[in-house]
Specification:
By secondary structure, this protein is α/β, with parallel strands linked by helices. Helices cover 43% and strands 10% of the residues. Helix 1 packs across helix 2 and helix 2 packs across helix 7.
Amino acid sequence: FPALGEEFDVKAMQVSMDDRSTFEDLKDAVINFLVQECIYGRMGETYELYLMGESFGGILATEVAAALQSNTQYSNFVRLQGLILVNPATSYLRSELYRLGPPIANARWLRPIEIIPYIFGLTTKLVPLFLDEGLAIQQLFTILSSKGLPAVVNTPQREAYMGRVAVTLASRLNFMPKDTLKWRLTEWLEWGNAVFEDRLEVLQSGITEGEDDLGMLRLSREVKTLIVVGELDKTLPSLDEANRLAAEVFRNNVVHVVTGAGHASTCGGTLNLMQLLRQVYPEVNGYRRTNYDVGTTEWKPRADLRGLVPRYDYAKIGLSPLLYWSSDFYEEWKDDEERRDRFKSRGYLEGKNGVFGWIGEFTLALRKWITP
């Protein structure tokens, strides 16, 4: 996704681990954000939007897209160019997650020991659903041995970003509270599926009962939809769902299957998402915002590299972790709340950025000094 940010003005939605907003609250929050961004950020220009949702986000993105298509006033400043759904959870009620998740979330134990069976259920039953057949682990060893990288990691800046994410990942992993899991399975996934099935009935009957139903009709007929699914998704029956959506919902669609990918690794190292977007939406080829070509690479994914490609620099040793936070490879961006129209940039060492920035600068200066 960060690579997409070099081509598009990417806005990502993050929900905290204990958030219990309703489905409608989430939908309204996304729409309100888009409206504000278009009005204040684009200074009245029409916002050409590609809306993407993964898993539960696929349900939410579909509802938001239908709402945008339903209200003619939105068309004055938002033009929905494409909808991208990655392993959409519109199939939740037919999934293994639906079979295994609610019993774990609803199980009752004495309060002092309740956390133990809950974590056991998460780690032994739910977490394995999100994994693939070991492909991600094999790719990790390939990256650590400096034999290959994902196709989009074709510059030292992107390798540094990948390294920063890996270094800080452990500190960001948390267990979702049991009550929150129960809420999301019921109020987000079940509710969202019910709403989606209602929309599907509208498409089949052609009888609309409100603006959003009309928006869904327009969405299914007018907006090109890309459906990306993992071949080995055990969380949801994504392959079957892709076929259903293509046959019954979205008239103008493209289905792309990521070979060997599980639910959580569909957008991983094997998929060059920018290249796929360029193929499905040719107009995005004119959107390039940087000199980096994230959509193509001189290498093709190789089976011996587990779907990765050879390193961009042919090096036998990867980029030093000491350089991950150096000014050549990192620049921190902060939202300027006072001047809503733009972001405020500052160098990494100009703020409270810790010792890693200083070490990175020292290492970078030393390397430049000893390199002829």
